Amino acid sequence: MDLTCRPRTLHLRDTFTIARSSVDTQEVLVVAVDAAGVRGHGEGAPVEYWGESVATMAEAVAADGAALLGDDLRDLEGIARRLRAWNGPQGAKMALDGAAHDWVGRRYGLPVWRLLGLDGVAPPTSFTIGISTVEETVARVRRAPGFAVYKVKVGGPGDLARLEAIRSACGARLRIDGNEGWTFEEARDLTPRLRELGVEMVEQPFPAADLDSFARYRELPGRLPVFVDEGCKDLGSVAAVAGYADGIVVKLAKCGGIREAQRMLAAAAALDLRVMLGCMIESQLGIAQAAQLGALADLIDLDAHLLISDRPFTGLGLDDGRLVLPDAPGLGLVAEEAA
Q1: Which domains does the chain have, with CATH numbers?
Q2: Measured between alpha carbons, how far is residue 143 from residues 13, 140, 147, 161, 323 in Å?
Q3: Model confidence over 101-139: pLDDT tens digits?
Q4: Is 72 annotated as a binding residue?
Q5: Of 103, 140, 162, 173, which is the most buried if we count CB atoms within 10 A?
Q6: β 299-300/38-44 pair status
Q7: Residue 3, SS3 per DSSP
Q8: Which cofactor does it need (predicted)?
Q9: pLDDT for 338
C-alpha cells in the first residue's frame, strides 16, 4: 500500500462571512491510497476553531496514516476503531476514512452508498448565504436560483433586514445559522418575526458552552427548532444534545468520517433527534463523502462545492437543488489529473 497526501487551496466565489470570521480561501487535505492497482481518494477539512490546520493534519497522516489503515483496507470497521482511538486531528481522520471507503468501493465495483446498504437519494440541499449587505445578500440568492431552501448566516447587525429582503425576492424555505453569534435576548426578540418570515429552524444560535441560553430558549412559546453544530462533535456528544435541542448537525470533519457519522445518525434516531448533514468548505470530494449518508438525514446542507471556483474532483451532480450521487464505484468522482 502506498499512502500520499497533499494540501489543496480552495477559492471562494464570494468572501464567506459568518458570525466569527471571514474567508476568501480554504485549505483542505487530499489523501490518496494505492493498493492492488486501485487508487482511493479522501479529503479532510480542518476544524479551525479547535486549532486544527492542514499542516498539522498532513504531519499526522505522514506519521500514523499507514498504521491506521492497516494491512487490509477492506476492514473498514477496524480502520474506524483505530481512527476513533487515535489522538489525531479530526480532519485527518475524515480524509483517511474517505480514502479507505473510496478504495473499497472501487476495488469491488460498488458505489459507497451501496456498500453501506443505502439508497443514493437524499433530501434537497440548502444553499448557504453568508453575512453581507442587504443588497449583496439578495444578489447572491438571485445568482443561485432553483434551490428549495436557503440557509442564511446570521449574527450580524442587519439579520432581519437581510431575511426580509430574501423573503421579498423569493418564496423558498429559509433556515438560519447563528454560528454561536446570538445572546438569548436577541434570539427571544427576533423569534416572532423570524416565524412570520417562514424561518423553519435555527442552527447553533448560542455559544456551545452556554447551555443556560439553550434551556431558556427551549421554554419559549413559539420558538424555532434548534440544531446543534459547534456543540456536537462525535457519537459521545449526541446524548447530551437531546436534553436541550431538537437536532444535531453531523459533519465528517468534526466526527472523523463516514463510519462515525453513521453511528451518530443511528444514535440520533434512537433519541428522537433530527439530523442535518453539513460540511465545512470542501470540494466535491469532501461533499461526496458526506453525501453517501444522505438517505439517512432529515436535512441536507452539503453545498460548499458550489461556493468555490475550484473543481479538483468532478462527478457529483445537482438536479433541481438535490445532489445526485454517481452510480460509479467508490465515491464515483474523477480527479482533475486523471480527467
Answers
A1: 2-110 (3.30.390.10), 127-338 (3.20.20.120)
A2: 11, 5, 11, 19, 18
A3: 999 999 999 999 999 999 999 999 999 999 999 999 999
A4: no
A5: 103
A6: unpaired
A7: strand
A8: Mg(2+)
A9: 59
Task: Report the half-sphere exposure of 264 (CA within 13 A, side-chain side).
Answer: 32
Burial of 85 (0-12, 13-18, 19+ CB in 10 A): exposed
- 105, 260, 282, 299, 319 from 251: Cα distances, Å: 21, 10, 11, 12, 23
SS3 13: strand
Is 177 annotated for ligand binding?
A: yes
Q: Catalytic residue among 93, 151, 153, 254, which?
A: 153
* Beta strand ranges found along the chain (DSSP E): 2-17, 22-35, 38-44, 127-129, 149-153, 173-177, 199-203, 226-228, 247-250, 274-277, 299-300, 313-314, 317-319, 322-324, 334-335
Q: Report the share of the chain in percent with pLDDT over 70.
A: 99
Q: Return the ∠ at Cα 290 (arms to 91 and 338), rounded to 5°.
A: 80
Instruction: State how far the Cα of 248 lies from the Cα of 229, in Å rounded to an integer.
Output: 6
* Residue 168: strand, helix, or coil: helix
> d(Cα 245, Cα 104) in Å, to the nearest integer?
36
Asked about 93 being catalytic, the answer comes back as no
Q: Which residues are bridge partners to 276 per DSSP?
A: 249, 299
For 189, the grid coordinates are 426578540
Q: Would you call 153 a catalytic residue per the annotation?
A: yes
Round to whole Å and give the CA distance between 61 and 58: 5
What pLDDT was estimated at residue 337? 73
Catalytic hit among 93, 151, 233, 251: 251
d(CA 178, CA 155): 5
Give mean pLDDT, residues 159-188: 96
Under DSSP, is residue 254 helix (H, G, I), strand (E, B) or coil? helix
